[in-house]
Amino acid sequence: MTRKINIFDTTLRDGEQSPGASMNTEEKLVVARQLLRLNVDVIEAGFPISSPGDFESVRRISELAGDKATVCALTRAVEKDIDSAADALKYAKRPRIHTGIGVSPSHMRDKLRITEDECVERAIKCVKYAKKFVEDVQFYAEDAGRSDFDFLVRVIQAVVDAGATVVNIPDTTGYSLPEDFGRRIKYLMDNVNGIENVTVSVHCHNDLGMATALSLAGVRNGATQVECTINGLGERAGNTAMEEVVMGLRMHGEDLDGHTDINTREFLKASRLVSSITGMNVQANKAIVGANAFAHSSGIHQDGVLKKRDTYEIIDPADVGVGASQIVLTARSGHAALKHRLEELGYEMDGEELDRVYEAFLNLADKKKEVYDEDLESLVNEQERNDETAAFVLESVQISCGFPLKPTATVTLRNDADQSQTACEWGTGPVDAVYKACNKIMQVDNELSEFSVQSVTRGIDALGEVTVRVTAPDGEVYTGRGSDGDIIVSSAKAYINAINRLLNDKRQHRR
Ligand code: KIV
Ligand code: ZN
How do strand 225-228 and strand 6-9 relate by DSSP bridges? Predict the structure, then answer.
């Protein structure tokens, strides 16, 4: 039997740090339910001191997970961070505090302005402090990938002696080469006394496109926990993609001496869910979950696959959930069928909320005849975006455009004081006109930095999903999404959603 490799998911923490990918608590709970279905070992649910929203998410996910997964909260090596994490984890059955400090020359000298001795002292202090609240304390040695080998041994020895149960060795900047990173892990395994009694974790970033290779090199050399995210979401170029590292282990488990307990058939669903909630689209040629991951277009390949699948396919698509659900709902499907399907997709709802989604579903089913899982996800996410915390809601939008007209839009929005306002503007195109009219009403300083349209399913009657990103004057990026059968309406909804998120965030931080 190979070693069990723990999967530590950080989609809700590091993943969420990726610009424009922020999620609210309800959205995080939907993702957390899917993580439980995947059977991850640890969910890093947030960084509680960073915002009231993060605190609340860690608290609610702790309640949700029960004893099905360890729930972890991030802190700096600062007592007030650890107090906040311990408080947020109060209801967790399996709580873990993840604390740590930068250990590379660059982090110590330029960021923290501390000496090596001070760094070791602070590392010991934060682990001991966290141990007062929980037994399970994970220490991260930030930027370990660029640290001095012997100094890293010194820090890790100190925190193991101080009671850390897990030591996390991140390649924070994605700088390393896989062989070198593997050698670093081996050096720790060979030189830290008692390392066999703790879990060694790897946390690799994808700046050189090697996060998965780095993580597997870590496993080969002794690590038994891998930190990763769905779709590889994360700071800058992202983190290790869970689907890649798990399938890598599935393919090469004997060689790497490792297996995971992940339910890989949930991967595609998880990928779509995270992409739909965060607005971070998955590239078509992305390994495992990209739209083309199992598509064969050349004649030679098609011929081979038809003769025997494994001539060109190393993974059975069904093993990662491709083609798993072909359940199609129609206008004749009742409340119960919709509720059941939504539950399978990770959405739990009842009462008025379910009634609202059912109404939207019937509207869509009338137009579209067959409603697929992707349509349902899009519908539910659209409903959730229009919650009562929204500062503005779209009441109506009308455009006039075409050759040789000047594109003109009339938009009516309702604000959270229940007042309706209408504005009319013209623009270089219909979407530009709609956004100008919205701006006239909302008056929120921002710059539109990205706009994209995708169809949710195939066919002319498909829902059109628009993703926009806006940048606030302080440089913060906010993503908005909108979906509708009419892409002008989707465009208006997406823009209003991005502005609502911006306003919500600024209000939260003002508190
Ligand atoms: O990349 C990193 O070093 C991190 C730590 C906070 C674990 O995300
Ligand atoms: Zn990270």
Answer: parallel
CA distance 262 to 253: 13
Binding residue per annotation — 203? Answer: yes
**Which pLDDT score, from 0 to 100, does residue 182 have?**
98
Residue 249 C-alpha to ligand 1 middle, in angstroms?
Answer: 23
What is the reported pLDDT for 322?
Answer: 86
What span, in angstroms and rounded, lies between the C-alpha atoms of 65 and 39? 11
- The position carrying tokens 């993503």 is 479
- Two structure tokens written together for 29: 């709970």
Cβ–Cβ < 8 Å for 48, 273: no
Distance between CA atoms of 390 and 165, rounded to whole angstroms?
42
CATH class held by domain 3-278: alpha beta
pLDDT digits (tens, 9 = 90+) for 312-351: 889 999 999 987 655 678 888 888 889 988 887 778 888 9
205: CA distance to ligand 2 center in Å? 6
CATH of region 388-510, choose from 3.20.20.140, 3.30.950.10, 3.40.830.10, 3.30.160.270: 3.30.160.270
Atom number of ligand 1 nearest to Cα 14 = 8
In the chain, where the domains are located:
3-278, 299-384, 388-510
With the most atoms of ligand 1 within 8 angstroms of its CB, the residue from 50, 138, 140, 175 to mutate is 140
**Stated pTM of the model:** 0.86
**pLDDT, greater one: 26 or 458:** 26
Nearest to 362 by CA among 336, 386, 335, 340: 335
Residue bearing the CA closest to ligand 1, atom 5: 142
Ligand 1: residue whose CA is nearest its atom 1 = 172
